[in-house]
């Protein structure tokens, strides 16, 4: 018997990295999983769905831009039409633009705020009512350790957006209490994956990794599997008495 048997979970940005690892884990524990991603990420979404199906699970890929409210309406409606319910929403999709304040354009700033913060807002706006109609459940918002602690690595808009997620999560948790919708935030530190090399280049990624290792008390960077167990706990009924909480998985970075 799986920890998520009978549940339907929607995960945005589940075409790679933490999102993909979580989708596979949710399906392994019995959930039907809806994998969200941009049209350009269809191939990655297909890889996630195939990995789930190969282990005997059930998954569906949907194209979605989390900044677009019409997309949210369409996707939530499609989930409920296909599976009859929504129990778990994991707002995972996000972007990171690494530029110092003086090099950051207004367009860069707004793009990141829309993707990281407005996307979560729209997910809550349209996902929570669907979960409420299913009798309650869980929303997991992906924030960051930098949403609690600033960083001097050109993360102005990233920190601002992730800090906003920390705040909006607590408000949504209070608003969701009557409908038994739990809302929590997860705050990873550095989680290593292909995206680091793609955004920083091999040399830049290696240097960034070394800088971060010096700041992490456990002297290691994380990988997606370090986050998955927290996600399973929050998606399952094991977390029935947990809402408005911050889960920090960062090797001690925030307290250093």
Structural account:
The chain has 256 residues and is an alpha/beta fold. It has a single domain (8-195, 223-247), classed as Rossmann fold (3-Layer(aba) Sandwich), CATH 3.40.50.720. 47% of the residues lie in helices and 14% in strands. It has seven helices and seven strands, in the order βαβαβαβαβαβααβ. Strands 3-2-1-4-5-6-7 form a seven-stranded parallel sheet, sandwiched between helices. The protein is globular, with a radius of gyration of 17 Å. The mean pLDDT is 93.
What is the compact description of this entry?
By secondary structure, the chain is α/β, with parallel strands linked by helices. It has a single domain (8-195, 223-247), classed as 3-Layer(aba) Sandwich (Rossmann fold), CATH 3.40.50.
Secondary structure elements and pairings:
Blueprint: E1 8-11, H1 17-28, E2 32-37, H2 42-54, E3 59-63, H3 69-83, E4 88-91, H4 106-133, E5 137-142, H5 156-176, E6 181-188, H6 194-213, H7 225-235, E7 246-249
Parallel strand pairs: 1-2, 1-4, 2-3, 4-5, 5-6, 6-7
Helix pairs in contact: 1-2, 1-7, 3-4, 4-5
């Amino acid at each position: 018997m799986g920890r998520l048997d009978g549940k339907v979970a929607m995960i945005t940005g589940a075409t790679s990295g933490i999102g993909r690892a979580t989708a596979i884990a949710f399906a392994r524990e019995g959930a039907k999983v809806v994998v969200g991603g941009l049209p350009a990420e269809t191939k990655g979404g297909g890889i996630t769905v195939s990995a789930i199906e190969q282990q005997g699970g059930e998954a569906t890929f949907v194209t979605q831009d989390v900044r677009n409210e019409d997309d949210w309406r369409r996707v939530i409606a499609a989930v409920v039409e296909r599976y009859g319910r929504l129990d778990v929403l994991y707002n995972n999709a996000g972007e990171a633009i690494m530029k110092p304040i003086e090099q950051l354009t207004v367009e860069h700033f707004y793009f990141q705020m829309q993707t990281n913060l407005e996307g979560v807002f729209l997910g809550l706006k349209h996902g929570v009512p669907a979960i409420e109609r299913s009798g309650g459940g869980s929303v997991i918002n992906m924030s960051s350790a930098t949403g609690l602690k600033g960083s001097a690595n050109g993360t102005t808009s990233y920190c601002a957006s992730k800090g906003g997620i920390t705040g909006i999560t607590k408000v949504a948790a209070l608003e969701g209490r009557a409908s038994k919708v739990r809302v929590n935030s997860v705050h990873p530190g550095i989680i290593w994956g292909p995206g680091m090399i793609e955004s920083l280049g091999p040399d830049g990624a290696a240097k960034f990794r070394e800088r971060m290792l010096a700041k992490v008390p456990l002297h290691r960077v994380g990988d997606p599997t370090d986050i998955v167990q927290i996600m399973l706990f929050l998606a399952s009924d094991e977390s029935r008495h947990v809402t408005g909480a911050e889960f920090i998985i960062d090797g001690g970075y925030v307290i250093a």
